[in-house]
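Researcher: I'm preparing a figure for a lab meeting and need a structural model of a single chain. I don't have an experimental structure, so a prediction will have to do for now. The sequence is pasted below. Please return the structure as tokens so I can convert it later.
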Amino acid sequence: MWTRGRVIERIDWSDKLFSLRIVTDLAPFIPGQFIKLSQVRDDKRVARAYSLVNSPDKAYAEVLAVAVEDGQLSPQLQNLAIGDEIDVTQTATGFMTLDEIPKGELQGRHLWFLATGTAVGPFLSMLDTDEPWQRFEKIILVYGVREAKDLAYLDKLRAYEQQYPNQFILCLSVTREPFEGALQCRIPDGLSSGEIERKVGLTLCAADSQVMICGNPGMINGAQAALIDKGLAKNLRRAPGQITVEKYW
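Model: Understood. Here is the structure written out token by token.
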């Protein structure tokens, strides 16, 4: 189950937010899936799940993490330097993938990604492949953070705006400070009030929309409730709908 990985690059987005690129023997995976990183301390293994940020064709595993003050693993991950080793699961898992989205008449034209904080990771993995761009007319990423310094991979997202000006829409929301071009609301509130739809210029509706949500439980529950009020339904294999969810903890 566990294999050794070696850190080859790190990016520090802020004092607590960072990315690690790790060379490891990772089995093929589907964008949106996650791996576990772990360390053994005092004969006890401490493991945590992290979504893969990279696409499957990359020769490394990339994760986005935030160091929690009293966390059992994240502070140690933040202290890793290039060349340091970490245990990694060989196989990624999870159902937050485009494979779970209905195809054909039930697919709709617009794919919405709703993310808070580090939960933007699985969507970045998907955006770095051809599938979403080929399947959907519009792709909307709603990315919510507390402070502007928490907007990881913003340059990459701006590059998508340039590359797909008629297809990709980036909607940022920074709740604790003004940030140029960004909303200043929680995602569930922005959905309920219609503020997000007005900013994006599109309507969330069952006929046109598929929505994937990843983030903290409060955001997920609130966003789901707002979407259900708009007539969307949870996507289940036995009953295809429009809302696909991954709880981040």
